[in-house]
Amino acid sequence: MLPDRFAMSTSTEQWVKVFNDKAKRRIVLVCEHASNVVPSNFNGLGLSRQQLQSHIAWDLGALSTAKLMAKKLDATLVASQVSRLLYDCNRPPESPSAIPLTSENQPIPGNVGLSMEARQQRVTDYYRPFEAAVAKQVSSMGTPLIITVHSFTPVFLGQQRQVEIGVLHDQDSRFADAFLQQVLTDAQFNIQRNQPYAPTDGVTHTLKHHALPGGLANVMLEIRNDLIESSTQQKQMAAYLTKHIVLALERI
Predict the structure, then answer these.
(1) H-helix or E-strand containing 206?
(2) Cβ atoms of residues 36 and 55 within 8 Å
(3) Which of 97, 150, 204, 211 lies at a CB distance of 3.0 to 4.6 Å from 146, suitable for a disulfide?
């Protein structure tokens, strides 16, 4: 069990949690796809329970792994508490994929035919509090390292993915370069740059919005979710990543 200071901060909005907001290390971890929760008034967006428990609704294992990383690093973690199908907090309001019509070719009925008012209400209710929580933690630390933590499915649209850990970046590759140099000193995982997604897929919004304008070091870590299914795997992955994060920080 994580210590009490990793409980929800009472100052946050309902749909975002901040863990360890008194962190000593200047690192902000962000987990945009931490939850598969869809508030009851949305009737599950017309999806089955099985669909809402699958990777289309959230990043399986990402939150548990990120919490362990925050503990080991003594870093702050900001996590969304709604499904990315309701609103994807790693997308700006103007992006069509912020409220997706499909996910891995599976239609999302509750997102079809939304009025501009309905879309704006989701921005107000779910994105803005998350955006504000990240901004608050970043500004309180001055010049923190920003790390977003995600997971991805081993098979996407019928294609097996060989990459196990993706190290993603946008225009600023300083920390990604240092991290890749560090992790490639061992061969424990198949680690690749800007895989299984790239900036052209629109996945670096948090980095572009909260890190690039202030010149803050940043990286997005994508972990294949079969590697963080169990609590034991999550602990092992958190230990591996945090070890190399600390060593990479010494390189920049």
Answers:
(1) helix 205-210
(2) no
(3) 211
Residue with the two structure tokens 């900001």: 78
Predicted pLDDT at 197? 95
C-alpha closest to that of 63 among 108, 8, 105? 8
CA–CA separation, 19 vs 170, rounded Å?
26
Selection from 44, 46, 19 nearest residue 30 by Cα: 19
**Pairing of β 16-19 and β 145-152:** unpaired
Domain that holds residue 168: 4-249
Mean confidence (pLDDT) of the chain? 94
Residues 6 or more apart whose CB falls under 8 angstroms from that of 223 comprise 61, 62, 65, 149, 150, 151, 152, 164, 165, 166, 237
N residues, the chain: 252
Cα–Cα distance between 96 and 233 in angstroms, integer? 35
Number of folded domains that form the chain: 1
Place of tokens 């070719």: 105
Q: What is the CATH number of the domain that holds 68?
A: 3.40.630.40
Q: Which run of H or E residues covers position 16?
A: strand 16-19
pLDDT at 11: 38
